[in-house]
Amino acid sequence: MLGDLGVTLDVAIEITADADAVTARLLKRAEIEGRADDTEPVIRKRLEVYATQTAPLTAFYEGRGLLVQVDGLGEVAEVTDRIVGAVESR
Ligand SMILES: Nc1ncnc2c1ncn2[C@@H]1O[C@H](COP(=O)(O)OP(=O)(O)O)[C@@H](O)[C@H]1O
Fold it and tell me: What is its EC number (predicted)?
């Protein structure tokens, strides 16, 4: 699809964070924003779907030498700096 647009992919960034940290973030969002889908069973299901359907894609990008993993734990500003660093290193 990108090829049709004459665009090449420089990097694919995978932001990693363990399930407990992600669950805690979403439960906090539930408190703040009251999102009905931020309940523990729904979060667990979303993480399962990610693991089975989306995470396997990383092997595709890794095989092409495009994958960079960024640690998603820490303050938003720290994670942002890591992502910017990963993009700039390409
Ligand atoms: N580094 C972080 N530290 C703490 N909370 C975070 C961090 N990154 C994102 N969040 C919070 O986690 C929640 C989900 O993040 P978001 O990226 O919006 O997820 P979604 O993929 O559901 O859109 C949001 O409330 C966001 O503010």
Answer: 2.7.4.3
Residues whose CB is less than 8 angstroms from the CB of residue 27 and which lie 6 or more positions away in sequence, other chains included: 38, 40, 43
- Rounded distance from Cα 42 to ligand 1 centre (Å): 16
pLDDT per position as a tens digit, 25-35: 999 999 999 98
Structural domain boundaries in the chain: 3-88
Supply the ipTM of this predicted assembly: 0.90
9 — alpha (psi -120 to 50), left (phi > 0) or beta? beta
Residue nearest to atom 2 of ligand 1 (CA): 76
- Ligand 1 centroid to Cα of residue 56, in Å, is 22
